[in-house]
Design brief:
Ferritin, mainly alpha, 214 residues, 6 helices, DUF4142, DUF4142 domain-containing protein, transmembrane
Length: 214
């Protein structure tokens, strides 16, 4: 019995060494993969790509897509406001938003090209629905819906951009999000200056208990 134990001891040590190596490798993989990756199999890691500006993740790509789609509907709607709005203030705000998004669209397409990200060429479903809604309106009702829809949309994209700006590993995306956030805040202020925003219809902020620790 003693000889058998001694004969198997090298195999036992070898097995322990293999297990230890696997544990260290697993921990190392978890440590070096970007946040949001929950598998060591590579399933989620495949959604990331390496760029000269740092790792590019799904949230980074989503932020670029959302900015692009914002421009695809806010440029034509802003231009419509400049021509169709009843209120002179809404006409001014619409023209400014359209002009800003023309410039922002050039920037997001440039960033996407440098990061090899494919951007959409059409607005999202909700955005198209809002455009169709405005098409059937006129006068003061057009102005009100314009202010409400765009104010809500800017609040949504602000949340996305702020989260990506806070945690992205990609320096180009970080710089772009910072610039985009400033533009979104400017547009929110402009839309609210029309006096037509229904704050009661906006999504409520998350309760404190559901927010991550600062």
């Amino acid at each position: 019995m003693t000889r058998q134990v001694r004969r198997n001891a090298p195999h036992t040590v070898e097995l322990v060494g293999v297990v230890g190596f696997l544990l260290v490798t697993t921990l190392t993989v978890f440590m070096i993969l970007p946040n949001g990756t929950s598998s060591v199999s590579g399933v989620f890691w495949s959604e990331w790509s390496a760029t000269e500006y740092g790792p590019l993740g799904p949230a980074d790509v989503d932020a670029l897509i959302k900015v692009r789609q914002a421009g695809l509907w806010e440029i034509p709607v802003g231009q419509q406001a400049a021509d169709r709005a009843q209120s002179s203030r809404v006409r001014e705000v619409g023209a400014t938003i359209a002009d800003d998004h023309v410039l922002m669209d050039e920037q997001v397409r440039d960033v996407a090209a440098r990061l090899d990200v494919r951007l959409p060429s059409t607005p999202g479903e909700d955005q198209q629905r809002w455009m169709d809604e405005l098409t059937g309106l006129s006068g003061a009702e057009w102005d009100r819906v314009f202010a409400d829809r765009l104010r809500a949309a800017h609040g949504n994209v602000l949340t996305v951009l702020a989260e990506v700006r806070a945690g992205t590993r990609n320096e180009l995306v970080r710089s772009f999000c910072q610039h985009a956030i400033l533009m979104v805040l400017r547009h929110i202020t402009l839309l609210e200056s029309t006096g037509l925003v229904d704050y009661g219809a906006l999504p409520e902020p998350r309760p404190p208990e559901r927010r991550p620790e600062p």
